[in-house]
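Render this sequence as a predicted structure.
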Amino acid sequence: MSSVLIVRPSSLGDIVHALPVVHDIRQHRAGMTVDWVAEEAFVELVALNRDVRAVIPVSLRRWRHSALSRATWREAAVFRRRLKEQRYDVVLDLQEQVKGALIAWLARGTVHGPDRASIREPAATLAYRRTHRIPPHQHLIDRCRELAGKALGYAPAGPPRFGLTVPRLGESPPAPFAVFVHSTSRDDKLWPEADWRSLIAHFTRAGMTVLLPSGNAVEAARSERLAQGVTGALVAARRSLPETASLLARADLVCGVDTGLVHLAAALGTPTIALFFATDPELAGVSRAGAHARDVGAANATPSPEEVIAAAGAIMRRAPG
């Protein structure tokens, strides 16, 4: 076999969890080329892995809001032609949803995916030529690695390696600095603002600059509230995804809720704390990335600021320098 197409268009955190598959393929199937289908917003993220030969952009999120427009149909036709330019030995659907399965079905190659007992959306298996049994209750990183191994005939081993190469972009804030990622698309994942202010006050008193993201208007407004009256707390300017990755890679600490940028920080090797209370860290926690990352809390168990501070201190003492 000489080529594989990975279908994992979204979301940011799930793409990060799928990236170790690329290293596994390089290790066990030297010479095999790897292409990837990703949503247009995440193309630059996948491109940070130099072992991915080509990233094929898709715009499902945007197209669904203008499904009847001529521009959408033209873009979809271009995507379909791009998808069919090459025949792949294996088309690997890591999305586990009908939308991913349809993309995989459009590609030229044998489509592999989880079987009906292993997948989130069983209807997706109708698009697969080969299915594989994957234990459902395990971390997404391990699910992706195991599925790829079964499709390509090898057994993944060792810690996950994400293979991200991040250039230095933009100016660094005053050191030492932390990035606190307090926002996410799900309201049930939001940590109380009073707890964030307590955490920010602790780290700024300790001499750290704390950066608060402003990726959209809602996040920027929340960052402004959290930073108000706190010397050393700064609202960061909006950045592109590569610029954000560069910032996270240089941070002395990243702390945040269960969201994509926090998983990206852990994949970059930055000391990272992830706060869990609405989701299960056993299935999506940052600690699977390595000893530099730690999950605090659990499903239906909201962590306190004191727990977060203790966890951050423990991993920062282990960090080089």
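Summary. The chain has a mean pLDDT of 96. The first helix runs from residue 12 to 18.
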